[in-house]
Amino acid sequence: MGLDEPITYLKGVGPELAKKYAKLGIRTIRDLIDTIPRRYDDYSQHTMVKDLEPGAVTLKASIISVKGHYVRRGMHITEAIADDGTGEVRLVWFNQSYRAQSLKREQEYFISGTFGRQRQRFVISNPNMELVSDFPVSTARIIPVYRETKGLNSKQIRTALSQVIPQMRQFPETLPGWIIKDYKLPGYAESLENLHFPADADSLATARKRLGFEEVFQMILASLLIKAEIKSEQAPVVPFDEELAKRFVNHLPFSLTDGQRASVWQIYQDMERGEPMNRLVEGDVGSGKTLVAAMAALMVLRQGHQVAFMAPTELLARQHAEGLYKALEPIGFESYVGLLVGGLKPEQKRRAQAGIAAGDIRLVVGTHALIQEAVDMRNLELIVIDEQHRFGVNQRKTLMAKAGHMPHVLSLTATPIPRSLALTLYGELDVSILDEKPAGRQPIITRICSPNSREALNTDIRQELDAGRQMFVVCPLISDSATLDLNSAEKIYEQFNTQDFKQYRVGLLHGKMKADEKNTIMQRFVAHEIDILVSTTVIEVGVDVPNASIMLIEGAERFGLAQAHQLRGRVGRGGYQGYCYLMMSDSKAPSQRLRALEQSSDGFKLAELDLELRGPGAIYGQAQHGALDLRIAQLSDGKLLAAARQAAERFISQGEDLVQYTVLNQHIARLQAVINLN
Ligand code: ADP
Ligand code: MG
């Protein structure tokens, strides 16, 4: 039986069951073996009837009596008595009328299930039964539980898997021998078998360690190989002009933070090397990433070449254009800045494009899509990407085809990813970290609120508004939902505008509004023609309104830590004390996440906690990773990440030939396709 044979090759798997398997993505024997258990139930410890205690138990006993009968409403109950020589215990199954027929007397069974009280009696309910003379798959061992679907349960999957153990044992080793040896890992085939049929808890742990290691190793190797590929391309040398950098810094109303200085220095070195820069600047909200990008741009502009500055939204693009204009004004570079967004009037857009083509506009600020399609790229040397961690090799190559060379790429992100994790998830990037806030920033005062304290909170808010400040309100939904009892932006807007804050100017902003409507509202808020801006997370990234001092998050328990922290970073930017109110939907006790947010203002710390509590998918977005999601390895396992990274680096530095490792090579190709954004 080959691995690529359909699952119907197995005994007991017909076309109907195969459809159910297909629902779980399992079509071939290989898919079946490749299915990762979601969890395990430990039935490996045998107990004697006389020693039974409530919980998961396994007995070795014979059936001395069994009977089935229907009770009310068509429910069927099978009851049996099992005896192991030390005593008798009652077994009960619900709606399994075949049980009475299938149980054999006088034979010894492994019986695994949960022992507990039911209607005043102690019973084992719905236990799995397997003859001691058979190979047990659902009793008497650590039992894997798989993802299931209606009509296909873990027991069936285990039974199917038990038929392909010989195939599992024949899997060739997938890692180089020196890795197995140096990192003390068990072999691949052995690990697979222990994943599905663990011999004991230790073998299971070791198997999972090995398979997790391999996952991370592959992911890091894939991105390191991409990194090497990028570095092997040529990119324009952008010379460092110290005098210009100094002049720019001297005109700033503040001094650079150490993190900014270090990052800028790394960038200047990157761009002088003649290889394409691929750097990620990570810094908490308000850590001054835009300035770092502006300083990178400086050297390119000075050469008469072009920079594309891509923002995730039009709103942000506008704000960046303004900020860059102001920052470059004192050194006379402001006229190089141009805006290219969908909301421009046709005439404005034509003028922008003409300016870009003529080389008058050299720092083009816009959204990703627009810049990629509309800019004349001949002179493009640097791409700055705000809030997108990954810019694929292929996107880069498209630009290269237009520009005739590989541009330098600088990515900015406010998602504080712990360094070890960033190296794993974004191994193809070099990472600079801005880990301190500019001096003189007061920490934002954060408070958890419940609906019954809303009146008192409103009084506090009015005081701030009366002092001339403004407030952001962020809601989890645009409109009321039939299924979720949450305050929507529309509802809060209505309530604030007509009741709670009717003497103030309240505005509404959300993702379903047209681009120019959104811009108008945002600009009115920036100009302080609006006091309270009720919105959804469209304002999440980057918008800078120094006069806003309050962030009110409605339904705060619905937001991720990292996201709520980002939102909080929208206030307290203008030298006023910032406040963040986390309004819960109900008056229950606040979650650990909300309390963490109240207590800590350290984005990196919160990110690590979020990672532990919710896993990487929730934080960094499923869409972004997809195939990069790890199935076994825990990204919070720093030791594992470090070891796998070291192994990947050694693989490259030792000049290993990937082609010699067939399976590894296939996995790498698949991962690279994702990283490359094919
Ligand atoms: P983010 O990292 O969130 O993108 P920004 O680049 O928007 O942060 O910067 C936030 C604010 O901090 C801006 O108003 C910027 O002018 C200011 N800023 C940047 N660097 C410094 C610094 N070293 N000292 C004081 N303020 C700074
Ligand atoms: Mg920013």
Give a structural overview:
By secondary structure, this protein is an alpha/beta fold. It folds into 5 domains: about 1-40 and about 150-170, DNA polymerase, domain 1; about 45-140, OB fold (Dihydrolipoamide Acetyltransferase, E2P) (Beta Barrel); about 170-235 and about 605-678, no CATH class; about 240-275 and about 290-415, 3-Layer(aba) Sandwich (Rossmann fold); about 445-600, 3-Layer(aba) Sandwich (Rossmann fold). The strands form 4 sheets. Strands 10-11-9-12-13-8-14 form a 7-stranded parallel sheet, with helices on both faces. Strands 15-20-19-16-18-17 form a 6-stranded parallel sheet, sandwiched between helices. It is globular and about 95 Å long. Residues about 620-625 have low confidence and may be disordered. Magnesium ion (MG) binds next to helix 11.
How is this fold's topology laid out?
Layout: H1 15-23, H2 29-33, E1 39-42, E2 55-70, E3 76-83, E4 88-94, H3 99-102, E5 108-118, E6 121-131, E7 142-145, H4 154-162, H5 165-169, H6 177-182, H7 188-196, H8 201-231, H9 242-250, H10 258-272, E8 278-283, H11 289-302, E9 306-311, H12 314-328, E10 337-340, H13 346-358, E11 363-367, H14 368-374, E12 380-386, H15 393-403, E13 408-413, H16 419-425, E14 430-434, E15 445-449, H17 454-466, E16 470-474, H18 489-500, E17 506-509, H19 515-526, E18 532-535, E19 548-554, H20 561-568, E20 579-583, H21 592-599, H22 603-620, H23 622-625, H24 638-653, H25 662-675
Parallel strand pairs: 4-6, 8-13, 8-14, 9-11, 9-12, 10-11, 12-13, 15-20, 16-18, 16-19, 17-18, 19-20
Antiparallel strand pairs: 1-7, 2-3, 2-5, 3-4, 5-6
